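Support request, please re-run this one:
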Amino acid sequence: MATHNPESAGVATPSDVDSRRIYGGRSAADRRAERRERLMAAGLDLFGTDGYAVSSIEKLCAAAAVSTRNFYEEFPSREALLMAIHDDVLERATGAVARSFTDAGDASLAERIELAVRCYVTTTAEDPRWARLSYVEIIGVSAAVEQHRIAWRERWVALLEAEAARAVTRGEAKERDFHLGAVGLIGAVNELVFHWSIGGHRIPLDEVIAEIVRFATAVVTAD
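Re-run finished. Output below.
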């Protein structure tokens, strides 16, 4: 005997109805999206100022004006919230660097490197909370967060290797394996911006960018 499946029959299920139910002019989906945004904002503020270790779920919920139940509806853990905010910052940086390479067109290698480095660093450091979260609070939280951070590192390594290969085809660099150099460059970027961040931004950011540009240029052009 065939069973009746309301979804296959085109009949709305209770969860569908609930997601479309309107309260105060907003659907349940809209309200949930708003709660998620408030939690993301609260996480950035608390993780980026007080620090991840002391920012409990209770504090996050109070800052976002949501219940603990609401928190767990959006994120399975504090770590998940931290990684979601980190993703948001680095997606912005990835977009900025990609646009910089497009905008640079046929510019020289030196110009392309300077533009890309400046876009990456200024984007991640645009908000001091982004910088602290990306270069300080994300480090050593747990095995899961480290795996997440390393996955991002590999994405950047691939991007840097591709740009180095482009420099080779343009005759601006000699062909070689750029993988270790790319990994080392990312480490240098992280350490220099980390140093700038924990030092209260006393060092001008332009000096940090100039130093990273020197590292990047050496990585690509070294024999």
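Residues 78-221 form a domain with the Tetracycline Repressor; domain 2 fold (CATH 1.10.357.10). Confidence is low (pLDDT under 50) at residues 12-19.
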